[in-house]
Amino acid sequence: MSGHGLTFRRGGTHPPENKGLCDAASYTVLPTPAELLVAMSQHLGAPARTLVKNRDEVEAGQLIGESSAFISANIHAPVKGTIKGLDMAHIGPVNSPAVTIKTDQSAPPVPEYEREPKPLDLAAWEKDAILARIKETGIVGMGGATFPTHVKLSPPPGAKLDVLVLNGAECEPYLTADDCLMRNHPVQVLEGTRAIMKACGIDRAVIGIEDNKPEAYQTLSSAAEGLGGIEIVRCRTRYPQGAEKQLIEATVGRKVAPGNLPFTVGVVVQNVATTAAIYEALTAGQPLTRRIISVTGRGVNRPQNVMAPVGTSVAELLEYCGGPKDDLAAVVMGGPMMGRATSDLNEPTAKGTSGVLFLTKDELVIREEDPCLRCGRCVSDCPMGLVPTELMSLAMQGRFEEATDALDCVECGTCAFVCPSNRRLVQWIRLAKWELGRMRRRAQMKQKETEAKAAKS
Amino acid sequence: MLAELNLEKRLILRSSPHALSKEQVPNVMWTVVAALAPASLAACWFFGLRALLVIIGATLACVVIEYLLLRTRVDAKKAMLISLDGSAVVTGILLALNLPATSPWWMVVIGALIAMLLGKHLFGGLGQNIFNPALVARVFLLLAFPAEMTTWLYPKSGAQFAQLPNLAAENLDAVTGATPLGMIKADGLQAFLDWANQTGTSLWSMLWGNTGGSLGETSALLLLIGAGLLFWRGYISWHTPVSYIATVFVLTGIMWLVNPQYYANPVLHILSAGLFLGAFFMATDMVTSPVSAKGMFIFGVGCGVITAVIRLFGAFPEGVSFAILIMNGLTPLIDRYTKPRKFGAETLKRGEASA
Amino acid sequence: MIDILIPAGVMGGLGLALAAALLAAAKKFYVYEDPRIGQVEEMLPGANCGGCGKAGCKAFAEALVAGEDGNCPVASAETMAAIAQVLGKELGNTEPVVAHVMCEGLKSSATFNGLYHGITDCRAAHLIGQVDRVCSYGCIGLGTCVEACAFDAMEIYNGVCRVIPENCVACGKCVEVCPRDLIVLLPKGRQVFVPCKSLDVGKVTTRACEIGCIGCKKCVKVCPSDAIEFENNLARIIPEKCTQCFECVEACPRDLIKVRDLAEFFITEDDLKAGLDSIAKATWQARAAEKAKAAQAAGGEAPEIAAKRAKFEKALADARAKAEADPEYAKKLPKIEEGFLKKLTELGPAPDAEPTDPELAARRAKIEQALAAARAKAEADPEYAKKFPKIEQGFLNKLAALDPSSKAAEHKYEEEQS
Fold it and tell me: Which of A347, B70, C191, C253 allows an S-S link to B79, with CB 3.0 to 4.6 Å?
């Protein structure tokens, strides 16, 4: 653990970084796959409404799914092709309507990032126009949360934003996609930052980069010279440095209250990949249809960063990267601390997929759960100040109403990582969250029923 | 091509996180054993071969009894794994360190049985017990066999190390005697000071370990070194030991200031009668103490208050075991009221509930 | 003397003072509780299962006395009637229901990929996504519903959770707990349903499970009462419209649609070994045959008379239908009906004893009408004729069910089975 840099104060841990496996200096471009399974729900909020039918022809960048609610996003076809089916995509517990596109192999592939990007002429862009373009192009948070960006950048009236924090921390082990982007396309990142600053009326931006990425820090710092209002800062390599609230505390020293969003302390946070996507949207009208994904882990033969269109299946990526090794034991979408394991190699990648891990049995560390020792490590290391062992205990007993603190958990995985008894703390806390949500929904429905009954009588 | 491998059948599905730290229960437990090693070896040095037998006997008894108790619930392989995870060994050593070197073998075995059965497995096994098993056993033995439990050996030099383990009854008088605190309680402070002058016992010797008492009560210095290992590995935090010892120091100091003729000075108090053993190794036992820093602090203070009161005003010369057991019982209550503050809770304005 | 008097006086005085205080408190803080609440609470089963939707039997009693309507699924009908008497009002008559798990993708017949490591709780596993079962909609099989059931009415069989109908009181706990909403409460008399919730297209479902709904819509096409709705690649039978003619059961190419009398069906271990669906069908067929035999034994009639009876019944049915379409004809209908009924009575007493209950008669008439219509269709359409025996069987079963004499036959069958 490096000692330099700003950091959050409470809790956290330092899992082995394993970043050397996947070279961040460069990335390759995946040749267009034969088929793409593009889900209508690649974001938080309501799934997009499917606009195409079976056997329709679509062009690259064509709108195929339309934002269907206030919190929703557009979906576009990555490349030219024909709609082959309207199947469901199973992305974790979410069953999302989706379209299967049979790609036209003779058509050009997804456009890469500009190699010679020009600075944005922000004078020509009005704030509303920027937000409209972001909405049109279906941009969502690419750090993994996939919150629709145009909504995030339009906080409720009365919220005064004065700092933009950019998340270049990439605190998850193994993943180097953001590092790669920052090193190769610093101009996109910085210009996108400027665009967001214009859109939100902010004149100060801070880009936080963990200090295990010195090259990215150098590259961005030199590219940012002369750009007013943008500061690049070094953060200590500590997990979860990239968690929104922790990053805000580290970079600008403000603490967001439990249950509140960053705009309550005047901050808005965006991932660096999102800013690059915003640049592309403003200059070329490019919708969000591709991204850099870290295909890594010791279970794949040639781990590397790959630029791939959304809807690429895991199997496609695995084959492109040399196929699996014999001791491949698990496939994880995302990083090892917060990612989701899958057994379906046909599962598609989406806008928020920053990495696909192919882990071997040794890396996976399967251990049986021992009884909780009440050692208190989870309590002292929880960055959100919760008591994971108590939440687990309550969940095990089914006393979910008493476990309301679970709603403040960001599921970073620190508690389960440090637990000497290998307790599945995050899974228990997730269960508590799920049950609390269901109980709330049931109570709402019951209330509606009683109101309806009362209205009738 | 990929489909032929039929990978999907063997992919493992698990909730995040998919990485785990290297530390597991055996790491923790065996480190505690290592931390107790210096003091245990010193005990063998001071009290001879008999001490070694007591330590080994207690440890063996605890492990075997745990294995047998586990066999009523799980299969042989699992029982073997669990009984060797180190927690039974820790209990065994702590139990031994709480006994005098003259302990008869049957007392050691009964102690192990009480510790494992009443103190641990009737509650459900590792992590489920409310009271520290070694202390449960100690208190039981103290009340059931008061004579045997207070037959203390005086420490001898290394020459005694080769002494025969069985001490015949007629030899006992020559080598046994009361502990410093025992003497003070029974005969008064002056009597103790006279004896101390006579025998050349000083505070330094108490620090080093050259006084009578149970196996673990003697060498405060070596216990401190062992505790240092646990601090370094992060298995115990400073809150409980420091608050415990400080509280005892302050309370006994106050009474000493009030009446120095009657009450022993606070340094004597904190160096004697197993306070260090209790404060660093038993009050900090993870299973039976609070989980949060605030809670651990309160726990330490509580232990200190009870220990001081028993020592100063109670009938027993020493109160560490009782104090810790009582506070163990209060741990769930302490936990309920000392939850750490949530991240960012201080930015909530007074009276404003979180959104 | 004084030594005794003083303590006695003090204690006595203290006692009196405290008694007075208690009396005052009892008077001042007295809360009136309707005595009926206690009465009703006594009569309720006291399981505190929450099946009524309230937080326990006391709360339910309070709600009932306060005027709310409700039903206790655990209490028998007599108990509810008695409670209704105490309250001096009618309580809502809810049809008895039983839970059923809408997934029968057994481990032996569905595809499972991956090894699940984690908490043995279906909800927690569901949050990972597709657990080891490839079908994302199917039963996870870790048994959270089994644990939630307070009446021992659920068990895990071959990777799938099942309801044990005799023990189920429809309290609804399992419905609440299932993360994939697979458990539904179906009316007890419900014979036909589609135990699948997969929204995947047929191609995907075939890979995932031997039995899942592939969305071929054959059932929709054959249903004569439009009782099957099809949405998102999944068929669902609408309970209110289903006439239980069992056409869909025959039509389903995957043997998915099940026939099951939830109230009386009991699957033994041997049955299970042979495979759920084949047993269901076989048992149903056996019982249907028994019922028909019993009906015949109770009073069969000569085939010619039966044929005449059928002809008259058909004509009657046609006339009725025509009357509905044509108001002019409707005016003449009563006379025409009288004529046919006279002719039918002339043939002699019907094999089934005529029920004196008008409602029963009306139901009988309706079934006979439908049966006649089916016969007519069979005569016209040879395709339909192939399926007709089964349909006829269905109608005959229903007629038999209306008849007390054939109930005796049913009981006999049950006794043989137990």
Answer: B70
* ipTM for the predicted complex: 0.89
**Contact between A375 and B286 using a beta-carbon 8 Å cutoff:** yes
Q: Locate tokens 């889900």: which residue?
A: A39
Closest partner residue to A385 (CB to CB) among B1, B126, B341 is: B341
State which of A364, A391, A408 marks the end of a domain.
A364
**Cα–Cα distance, B15 to A337 (Å, whole number):** 10
Q: Which residue from B8, B9, B13 is facing C131, i.e. has the nearest CB?
A: B13
> CB contact, 8 Å: B8 with chain A?
yes
Q: Report the chain C residue with the minimal C-alpha distance to residue A431.
A: C124
Please judge whether A366 and B12 are an interchain contact, meaning their C-beta atoms are less than 8 angstroms apart.
yes
Hey, which residues 190-219 in chain A have their CB within 8 Å of chain B?
Answer: none
Q: Are residues C259 and C318 in the same domain?
A: no
Q: Is A446 helix (H, G, I), strand (E, B) or coil?
A: helix
Most confident listed range (A83-92, B298-307, C75-84, C106-115): B298-307
Q: Quote the number of domains for chain A.
A: 3
pLDDT over 60 at B346, yes or no: yes
Nearest CB to A85 within list C124, C176, C201: C201
**CB < 8 Å from B in window 341-370 of A:** 341-345, 357, 359, 363-367, 370
**Interface with chain C: mutation pick from B11, B13, B18, highest number of C CBs within 10 Å:** B13
Q: Are residues C72 and C135 in the same domain?
A: no
Domain range spanning residue C314?
A: 295-417
Torsion of CA C142, C145, C150, C152, to 10 degrees: -60
CB contact under 8 A, B16 and A389: no
% of chain B surpassing 70 pLDDT: 84
- DSSP letters along B131-185, please? S-HHHHHHHHHHHH-HHHHT-EEPP--GGGGGS-SPPPHHHHHHHEE--HHHHHH
Q: How many domains does chain C have?
A: 3
pLDDT in tens, A85-118: 998 899 888 899 999 999 999 988 888 888 888 8
Which residue range is the domain that position A316 belongs to? Answer: 292-364
Strands (E), A104-237: 163-168, 205-210, 230-235
Mean pLDDT of chain B: 84
Q: Are residues C82 and C185 in the same domain?
A: no
Q: Hey, is the C-beta of B338 within 8 angstroms of any chain A C-beta?
A: no
Which one of A328, A379, A419 has the shortest CB-CB distance to B291?
Answer: A379
Question: CA A180 to CA A197: how far, in whole Å?
Answer: 23
